[in-house]
Amino acid sequence: SAVISQKPSRDICQRGTSLTIQCQVDSQVTMMFWYRQQPGQSLTLIATANQGSEATYESGFVIDKFPISRPNLTFSTLTVSNMSPEDSSIYLCSVVGTGTYEQYFGPGTRLTVT
Amino acid sequence: GEDVEQSLFLSVREGDSSVINCTYTDSSSTYLYWYKQEPGAGLQLLTYIFSNMDMKQDQRLTVLLNKKDKHLSLRIADTQTGDSAIYFCAYKGTSYDKVIFGPGTSLSVIP
Fold first, then answer.
1. Cα A65 to the center of its chain, rounded Å
2. Do residues B75 and B18 make contact, with C-beta atoms less than 8 angstroms apart?
3. Which residues are within 8 A (CB) of B42 and not within 5 positions of it... i.e. 6 or more apart?
4. Distance CA A101, CA B33 (A)
């Protein structure tokens, strides 16, 4: 299984600021995703992070609000821009191992916007 | 459609078996997953099953799939207090597809 780390693990941010979340995987992976889990809710896919090209965003999520980078096969960042209290959520990085069907999740970044 | 339904709550006594049920609507689902989320923690992949299988057993966990009825279940034998968590049913169509999650079932184990 892939070991995924995220930084920061949690943060409290002020309205209008931006936060960049980092995701590091211990092995090269084919697919990397970013999910959001709002309080008491299930997981919603924000986007697929594509290596070397622009991320693919799900309906309701836009690049200006959630810019994503993926410079290589083991690392990705998600920025939450111009934050509002509605952005308070857990943000999770997820990967699919090369040649497998198993999808793993990082420990998440718990974001509170005041 | 991408709907996945689960009962939101389940309560069992320690030592009993737990059965968590899930129904989905997308007939193209190929891989079906069960994840566990303990309070304040990330998601742990418990097990998964391919759509061409009926059953998969892994120690205390048994997954049953009725593809005709689009029904998936997770049975936990000899449920322990450490099994108290939220259990998410999820699926994807191909290995490159996104994973669609159900709302989660909160399992409470009574000592």
1. 13
2. yes
3. A92, A105, A106, A107, A108
4. 10
Token pair, residue A95, equals 């990967």
Rounded CA-CA distance B73/B20 in Å is 6
Q: Is B31 on the interface with A (CB under 8 A)?
A: yes
Distance CA B31, CA B8 (A): 22
Instruction: From chain A, pick out residues whose CB is under 8 angstroms from the CB of B35.
Output: 105
Chain B segment 56-95 residues within 8 A of A by beta carbon are: 88, 92, 95
Closest Cβ opposite residue A102 in set B43, B48, B104: B48
Per-residue pLDDT of chain B (111 residues; tens, 9 = 90+): 458 999 999 999 999 999 999 999 887 888 999 999 998 888 999 999 998 899 999 999 999 999 999 999 999 999 999 999 999 999 988 767 888 899 999 999 999
Q: How crowded is the C-beta side of A87, counted as CA atoms within 13 Å? A: 23
Hey, are the CB atoms on B45 and A43 less than 8 Å from each other? no
**Shortest Cα–Cα distance, A49 to chain B (Å):** 12
Chain A interface includes B104 (CB < 8 A)? yes
